[in-house]
Design brief:
Blueprint: E1 9-14, H1 20-26, E2 48-54, E3 70-78, E4 94-102, H2 111-125, E5 130-136, H3 140-145, E6 149-150, E7 155-157, E8 161-169
Parallel strand pairs: 4-5
Antiparallel strand pairs: 1-2, 2-3, 3-4, 5-8, 6-8, 7-8
């Protein structure tokens, strides 16, 4: 069986509950169950949840009944202002990227980049110009390679570890 390649990934909109198993496996394995991998804004009207799917039927992915392929990464987007540092944009110009993660088996193959491309499309679709996040230390290089800039120094998030705020300024919004 061949391994995934960048063109083998497809980004799709998910329901919040469809993100939880992957969040548990990748981001919060210390939580007792996937059902507890919820964040405060998951069910809000302004939330968008994205999943990246590998088209190969690999055994390590997460199968979702209404989707072809296997889920290998997720992220969520929210209309949420940055409060960790001073930013050069207005609150209404940005979306916050949260709870992004990919399975270890697809790291370096384009799944994460596909998620960021899908998130960037959503930013522009909503008439905004900035995608920002609280990046985990282990992901600094990933975000830098995709054009994100650091906005502050390292800070610690309890139970998660060192982070920095990073932002990607996109071209002008779509009309």
């Amino acid at each position: 069986m061949r391994g995934p390649h960048l063109t083998d990934f497809e980004v799709r909109v998910l329901r919040p509950e469809e993100t939880r198993e992957l969040r548990h496996r990748v981001l919060w394995p210390h939580k007792p169950s996937a059902q507890q991998c919820v964040i405060d804004l998951d069910e809000t009207d302004h939330a968008t949840h994205l999943g990246v799917f590998a088209q190969d039927d690999e055994p390590w992915g997460v199968s979702l009944k209404r989707h072809a392929g296997v889920l290998v990464g997720v992220c969520s987007l929210f209309d949420q202002p940055c409060i960790r540092c001073k930013v050069p944009w207005e609150d209404h110009e940005a979306l916050r990227l949260r709870v992004m993660g990919t399975l270890p088996e697809v790291r370096g193959l384009g799944a994460g980049a596909a998620l960021i491309a899908g998130a960037s499309d959503e930013v522009l679709r909503r008439g905004k110009t900035v995608l920002w996040c609280d990046a985990r230390e282990v992901a600094f290089g990933f975000y830098e390679r995709l054009g994100f800039d650091f906005m502050n120094e390292v800070y610690e998030l309890p139970d998660v570890g060192p982070h920095r705020t990073m932002a990607l300024v996109l071209s002008s919004p779509r009309n």
